[in-house]
Each structure stands twice: as structure tokens, then as C-alpha cells.
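Structure record:
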Amino acid sequence: MPRAIQIDRLSKTFGAARALNAVSLAVEEGEMVALLGASGSGKSTLLRHINGLHRGDAASGALLVFGRPVQQAGRLARDVRRSRAAIGMVFQQFNLVERSSVLTNVLAGLLHRTPRWRSLWHGFTAEERSAALRALDQVGIVEHAYKRAAQLSGGQQQRAAIARALVQGARLLLADEPIASLDPESARRVMETLAQVNRDHGVTVVVSLHQVDYALKYCPRTVALRAGEIVFDGPSVALTERRLRELYGTEAELVVGHRHDRPPPLSVVPQAALA
């Protein structure tokens, strides 16, 4: 069985800045993995390469998703759109059309396989609408289906984005800092929803975070990045405060995370570290 993600020596340079430096990574199907690191560590850049939104440098090796090539040597595969159809993206800023209903936003996950003439007229079938409502029910916000997206809280909008990925039929879900702008309770619900999608639907989840406590609670495996390089890849429980200090040095002065749903202390890598 092909791996969900297979990356071989991926590098990315923006001008004179090296964003990724010969990153190699394998993620098995069905895993839930945290990408840990501060702003500027390379987390978002790595996720955007997996989805083919960025192209690596010419010296990069192959990047495959479920055995299908996404890019190699800085060139996207000719059929990259087929690979993208299996990849759902959840962004920090939700990427919803605020004037449209929540249901319409979720149905947008079907546009990649909907005939153009139907999509132009919002011609979704009753079966497709039912599938979207089921997805909203699965993420716990079906009662908001007919509200405008702008009326939802940040956490609810993020769960709507996850429902959109479910309707899309994504086998791999990439979540780029999905809880960075949320309050602790909304962050907890979003992380629990991602864990449920992974557990109940078998969707592979890779979520970028800077909070160690969320990685430890929800993700069995953590990949930690620093300055575009992987500095740790292993069980999340191995990320003790001492280990984090070894990885991030004096730049990673730890902040204790106070959570209402679990006892302290668990640590957080500051956003400003390594910037």
C-alpha cells in the first residue's frame, strides 16, 4: 500500500532565504501527525508543497501523495489536479465565502467533480445536499447550515471548512495553523473534530501547530521543524520540556499552557522563536 505522503529531499528557496532544506518525510495512511514549530520554521511552506501550491527547487526529489507524483525537481506533475482531489486543505483564515450559506460553502467541496454547467448555476443534487448536511452533522454544526458563514464563530467556521473536506472525499487533510486565531475552547473543539475525522473516517491528518500541549493530546506523532529542517520526528510523548530545550535552545523559552480541560504543565513553543 502506498504511503499517504512520501517526500524526498525537498528544498525551497525564496530569494536568498532557505525555507526548506532537503526535507525528507514519510507519513503512513491513517496517521495523525503534528507539524510543530514557530513562525518561520517551514510548516506552512511544507504543507503547500504537499498540495502542489508551491513548487520546490530544481534540486528537490520526488513528492508523492498516495503513490501519485505531485512534483519532482521543481515541476508539478501533469495530472496534479487528480492528486489534489484527494487532499483537503484547512487554513488559519477559514477560506469561506462569508456571504454564502454554510451549506453552500460545504458544497464547494464537490466542485472538482461537478460538471461546469451545474456548478455555475449552483445545481447540486438532493443527494449532494444531503451529503453536505451529514458532513455538517458530523462536525457538530448542522443547525447552522442555512446561516451565512459570516454569522458563525471562528471555531464554527473552521469546522465548516473541515466538513467541506469531508464532502470533497479527501483522503488526506492538511490543516495549516487551524487553531492559531481561536480561543482555547474553540481550539479544543476543532482539534477534537480533526481527531474524529481521523479516527472515524480513516482520513490521514497533518496539522501544523506551535502549541506542544495540543500536539501531545491529539497527535500520536510529531514532526518538529526549525529553520526549514526536521529536528525531531517521533512520538509526541517524547517532547518533554528538556527535549524541547535541546531542540530549540535559548530561543525556545517555554511558556506553560493553562488549559481548562487538562492539568498543567505542558509547554508551548513561542510564535516569535526562530522568526
